[in-house]
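ok trying this again, last paste got cut off
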Amino acid sequence: MGLSHRRANMAKPLVAIAGFLLATGCTNTDWTPVNGPLERPISEAQFPYAIPSSDDGLVIGLSFSGGGTRAAAFAYGVLDGLRTQSASNRARPLLDNVKFISGVSGGSVAAAYYGLFHDRIFEDFEQNFLYANAESDLRTSFGPGVIQAALSGGINDQTRFPKWLQKNLFGDATVNDLLERTPRIVLNASDIYNRVPFTFTFQTFNAICSDPSSVLVADAVAASSAVPIAFVPIVMKVYKENCTNPLPSWASVAASSQGAGAKIQATAWAWKKYRDDPEVNFLKLADGGITDNLGLSSLSVFLESLSGPQKLVDLARIRRLVVLVVDAGQQQTQTWTNTAAGSSGIDLAVASIDTGMSSSAQANFDLFGQLLRRWRQAAVSARCHMDRLDIAKISDARPGWRCGDIDVAVLHLSFDVLGAARARQLSMVPTRLSLPAEQVDEVIQAGRDAVRMTPWALREQIALH
């Protein structure tokens, strides 16, 4: 199945804005860093060196793509679908087996809200966000002030969208609050100077020697959603003088190992620069979709950081590990390939942006699948070499247990699973932070149906036998 990540409705106004950037001027853009220094070292015990397990051995991970309110609505629909679905031989909902979620841009809003409030999301998220006008405090129309702001770094700075998120959704909750809860939530932005994903995790905060309790969830979500030009990048300071902990060993290995993959290696090198490069003192974070619109890079780093299955304390309990890539990306809806003439400059610019993002997403999807299969091989090897007494205890508790009985799968839940006609209709929903209620309802239902209409995922590949 192909991966399409069309964001034409967002990119068109941005390209149009670029055409107006002929004036000069300045604005009072807020570039204040949103993070504080590390008061005490982050213990390696806080790094997630284990994939969480569950009582029945089924572990589900979710990755929510970007795409504004459309992506948040699709992610919400999938969560609700998992809440009402169960595997063929169980009564408990599949949502109980979700142990980690990665979110990008609009998907990060849903991921963060579920991570903080759990089932409350089904009570008030629709009214608080999906049906709300999150653009109410934003500059969205042209004018001299908008052009000047764009020239100064972005049209909307952190006095706007982050404050709206804080007031209406997340309050004073911090990234530390998010990281200490289950399921594990990872929010993804892009370090646009070092050209790598920036993940809001204990390991990344350790790399920049900053305290995760100093950063509001609202600021992290805003960073994940900060489309260039439309938004000023969120600024994070690197507190080199507070660095006492070394980088994790996997990062040092990955920085010098081609076997880790280019994305993993680039992340490791960026972390080293945070510590060692005297010119890297402030990070500028923008939309996570720039580097990975599926949010899989953070999960790839997580798999790489496991540093060997011997650290997976729940390893023996896992029987099925499934990652559902919840992709609200749009199909191509332009028709300028029907004739030799056509394709405006804006269309070509949008197509170029989409092509780069789509290619990156495809590469990240493939890399994650490779890493997951490699993890399974190492996990099987570790389980088969466990102490005989431990194996006997497991076998007594689970008759028929075998060391090689681990299945893994990466499944793509996109609009495509709903059929070509419906996928095209859903692709017409714009990438905005304010949508008509009928479009929100349409996308929410699409998420529910995507769960319900993929029996190949929910019965054949993750049902326990």
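PB: full thing came through this time. The longest helix spans residues 345-384.
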